[in-house]
Amino acid sequence: MRQAGRYLPEYKATRSRAGSFMGLATNVQYATEVTLQPLDRFALDAAILFSDILTVPDAMGLGLSFAEGEGPKLARPLRDEKSVGALQVPDLEKLRYVFDAVTSIRRALNGRVPLIGFSGSPWTLACYMVEGGGSSDDWRGVKSMLYSRPDLMHRILAVNAEAVAGYLNAQIDAGAQAVMVFDSWGGALADNAFQEFSLRYTAQVLAKLKRTDAAGTTIPRIVFTKGGGLWLDEMEKLDCDVLGVDWTVNLARARALVGGSKALQGNLDPAVLFAPPEQVAAEARRVLEDFGTPHSGTGTGPTHVFNLGHGISQHTPPEHVHALVEAVHSHSAHMRAAGRKA
Amino acid sequence: MRQAGRYLPEYKATRSRAGSFMGLATNVQYATEVTLQPLDRFALDAAILFSDILTVPDAMGLGLSFAEGEGPKLARPLRDEKSVGALQVPDLEKLRYVFDAVTSIRRALNGRVPLIGFSGSPWTLACYMVEGGGSSDDWRGVKSMLYSRPDLMHRILAVNAEAVAGYLNAQIDAGAQAVMVFDSWGGALADNAFQEFSLRYTAQVLAKLKRTDAAGTTIPRIVFTKGGGLWLDEMEKLDCDVLGVDWTVNLARARALVGGSKALQGNLDPAVLFAPPEQVAAEARRVLEDFGTPHSGTGTGPTHVFNLGHGISQHTPPEHVHALVEAVHSHSAHMRAAGRKA
Predict the structure, then answer these.
(1) A259 located within any domain
(2) Which residues of chain A from 195 to 214 reach within 8 Å of chain B, CB to CB?
(3) Would you say residue B331 lies in a domain?
(4) pLDDT tens readout for residues A142-180
């Protein structure tokens, strides 16, 4: 999940120098700086590219902007047959600033931790592309299109799948060492619609992804569907290595269901970070214990990647994140030691 | 789910005469009128009391109001130990207008269809009581309290459980023929927190509910948790007759899981109603087929109560609701006939 952000004063300082969110995201130097800020504070095990999922619709010509204190806006949303028909996979050169940031961050990391690249899923991008921004409640615009004109929705999603695959492959070429697909709004869909309009296109993305970088190193793939816990058994069939799960999922059950073939990533409720450090640590231990010992004495078995169940809130006190990272490291070391003895 | 509402011009006319939402909800004549409006348009099989879930916090002295075009506001939210300590089960006389409306509606229905009473769940009421209104994103206030001061949260929930039980029992006394507990925000909770802070208090409510009305007629109990699909097996242990499920749930799976002891209610995505009538009918048939034939040839087996998976949107064209009700009736008659032959 997002590591950098408004909860860090140093992020706010950089953003203020950049002038705007897009000024920050499109500037290689600033993007590198804010990506590394959380690593300088916390003993994190990986870095994630600082960017926004709407860079791809922006490169498609939909006109992204961020008004202060509001969410993202797309100036030219897809509302009719004509605009959907005109949608094209973007020229990846328009996203060069992202790939340059990946290369710059990778260089700045200098092997300290691996760098994760990411994209929104085809469905999640489509939500914003049709609505023209976030939805306060019911995704009325995009769901109206989905149920009224599934042909238009499928056309958008096919273009998005192609674009997302190209975008992630270019991130791999630029130096990303793992890639993550965020299906932040898959969980808004009805059973059946999720499979047809989200999962199917995530699978298309994965089918087009490079398995290795130019040096032949395998690039792990992570898929996260917020609110997707009910569909884990179907997501198990995805050609990916890790499934991210939100905090509604019981990790022991999820492990029993898909742990044979997938690692699981998650799933602390980010709201836990509003509580004092002792409670943060206790909840982190609970999440680790829910999953259970990652490796048996023989060194095999399913893997757990500790993470939040969704993005970190801007209202999070940084010292609570510190307590979280410490608790995860010390308690998982404890669990591994106990596992070896067992 | 809500049947009356802003999607109906006759509702808007009554509300305009009432002057405000609370003017509507607290006036027996108006509440009766708007409860019956959907029945005059559509061949519905039940009526549901027109009211708001926040009547109970209002009676507790938290000061409910609805600003035009905005959600509900509570003037005196519970933010600290003192306000939580002062919270009391309300004098039910303050909710007399609700019970009078139930009696009036029951009389006006005159046996046409049964009348369902309802309440918010203890947890869902607590969400509003701590936040002071709805939450645009993460229920930060209420979750901060839950993780930081679980003792305060448990105190609120214990008072709420007592209040909700009294409120529903008084609705039964007034003439409600079934009662429904809406846990609209149970799905915002993490696994483990849901069981501790939502499910447990819903169970407390059910334990205090009357089983029959004064005439000895059984009062069925319905529990709906939006986003609760992952916890259906735990909800099966609730002392209720029906579990409501939202549109993310696969009805065939849910039936296999809990259909042995519970009827299922749901689960059409209300956004389907934005599509043209033919698609509405097709999606309604899909929901019915997902559940499958309710009764086998021998007249036994699990029951499906067709419903939306959540409240109807104010943007719904009424003629689409008409198409829905027709499709449900004709297709379920067809399925029953086929089931008898089989």
Answers:
(1) no
(2) none
(3) no
(4) 999 999 999 999 999 999 999 999 999 999 999 999 999
